Amino acid sequence: MDANRLQMPSELRRLLGDGEWLADTMGCSDSQVFHVGHGYLKIVPRVSLMNLRAEKDRMLWLQGRLPVPEVYYYGVDEQNEYLYMSEIPGVMACDPVFRNDMPELIALLAEALRMMHAVDIAQCPFDQSLSYRLALAYQGVQQGRVAEEAITARYPDLIPATLYEHLTRVRPTEEDLVFTHGDFCLPNILLDRERHRVSGFIDLEYAGMADRYRDFERVCWSLGFNFSREWIPALLKAYGLEEEDQKKMMFYAQLEDLLWASELP
Questions:
Q1: Measuring CA to CA, how many Å separate 58 from each of 66, 240, 246, 262?
Q2: Successive 10-residue mean pLDDT values, the chain, 265 residues
Q3: Is 24 a catalytic residue?
Q4: Which residue in the list 183, 192, 215, 245 is annotated as catalytic?
Q5: Which residues, in sequence order, are bridge partners of residue 79?
Q6: 188 among the known binding-site residues?
Q7: Sign of CA dihedral 16, 19, 21, 22
């Protein structure tokens, strides 16, 4: 890491100072994340499919709209892309401490969803609508970037091309557009247990206008992965959804599976 420090842009080195670098291994992306000083530094190779500029742009736009990190620095050099941002206090919604009080977690997750979806999208510049996401999926299939083994492991009778064709046939006819996180998984939601409130949102690279089921699908999957699927009906009811559209939930699960498989290393 000392070599990385020396190679960084001089302005970033100045901002980071001589503070200790603590690696953050949460998550499964190909970024390096470090807690440095009073913030977090992300480093991504320029050849990566990750886009720190997209995350930076969204955090800047969301200032004053949602509790998100403040951008301290963004830059690119010949090797890497860098994003240094403020720290949001709180515990991740996936923290095992919530096993002792799942109703509290469910209430806070529902509040986090409502906060996200209440953002006014009238001037939102970030399109994540179905047409855009399906176009990305098509591009991934056409370019051969989809990890076929990841698709066949989950859908034994399908390959990426046939999964895409299936999605075009069962595409929902209407979209209930709101501002969505895009990766509304529990590690990306920070909570203040003492004040019983949502502290903030992180990892916003894919945020933008989309159907609210995009977030429903991710948070329900993550709730089941980190705790238990038995809490999903309680979460949707706490949000205010009286009846789940299971076809739409399945559609967004399959679409996200196809898109995530196109970004695997």
A1: 11, 27, 30, 22
A2: 65 88 72 90 83 96 98 94 96 96 97 98 97 96 94 94 97 96 97 95 97 98 98 98 95 95 72
A3: no
A4: 183
A5: none
A6: yes
A7: negative
